[in-house]
Amino acid sequence: MASQEIKDRLVEAIGAIEVSPGNWGISSSMVDALKILGALDEGAEESRTEIRAEIASVLVDDERNVNCDLALALCVRMFDHPYDSIYAEEIHDLDEAKQRRLFRRAIQASDARRSMSLDWLVEKVASFGDPLDVALLRPLTGLPSRINPFPQEEWGAFAAATRFLGRHHGELEPIEAATNEELCLVEVRSLIYLVEAGGEVGVAAVRQAWQRLGELRPQLVVGCLSEIQRALRERPYRRDGVESYPPLDLVAVYPDECLAVVRKFIDDGAFAEFYHQVPDQERGVSFAFDVVGEYGDRGDVERLRLRSRTHHFARHALAALRRLDGADNADRSV
């Protein structure tokens, strides 16, 4: 059977599959399969003129009449659309000024915080290094949603926007914390901001932030630190060359302070508490014992041994003990 005939039959078979409206996983796979078979090429090229017109419509000078929701949709379509390659080509062909205008307007969309491309957009705008974008990114330094079941984008944007405002000494979004969880994340936000802001004033502010964190339950502080550490370190968009804000290891910046709080956490023996209401429970425990394994000393051996004996932290405690033992042996061999 000729290869073209096989492709035609596959395209026909895929088109005959009935998919429920909410089953985006299968729908996306079907679109990918059709792309590979070349079944969408002709339609994509036919849509190029319309796509150009859509892009042009959100780049007009009159900002009062701009559809920012459409700007966001156009950016998202570069990654998730049957004609994504055409959207990507047309947007990448824009000159730098127009590209920046598009990304800035996309961030202002009404549902930007729920977008699966929010972190990428914030990183893009932050990479411009323009202090005038402080006002644009300030709202994203407000606290993330506590109930978002897919928090990676929102937390990544929160971390990136906070770093941007710190670097440009912009004023953070005001927050009236009503719970201990909110109080904790406000202080952690200050620590991120101060990494970029620096200066003599920053030294005193860092000390005050850790003092306030010390008044909260260590379980909560460990939980919040583990959540934000992931957002700071896992930067998924490095493939496009945006390097203005490389991954940040908050523990490496504040090792002594982090070590002090995780020691209290381990000694208490209770599970971590989180700002986010749908966390990975294991994340807080892993974070605490990773800190001790990396920055602890022989004085931590006994506390780890206590937790390695029929305790719900036992597996993590044993791993941290092995790391400390390996580090100690390495030191003695030098």
Class computed from helices, strands and strand pairing? mainly alpha
Largest sheet features: none
Uncertain runs are 6-40, 329-334
Given the C-alpha coordinates, what overall shape results? elongated
Number of helices: 18
Mean pLDDT: 84
The strand count comes to 0
Strand content: under 5%
- Write down the oligomeric state: single chain
Order of helices and strands: HHHHHHHHHHHHHHHHHH
Secondary structure: helix percent: 55-70%
Describe the overall structure.
This protein is mostly helical and 334 residues long. It is built from 18 helices and no strands. It has a domain of 203 residues. Helix 4 crosses helix 6 and helix 15 packs across helix 16.
Task: Label this structure with key terms.
334 residues; mainly alpha; 18 helices; elongated
Draw up the topology in text.
Layout: H1 3-15, H2 24-36, H3 41-46, H4 48-57, H5 68-76, H6 84-92, H7 96-107, H8 118-127, H9 134-137, H10 152-167, H11 180-197, H12 200-214, H13 218-233, H14 250-253, H15 255-268, H16 281-295, H17 301-307, H18 314-333
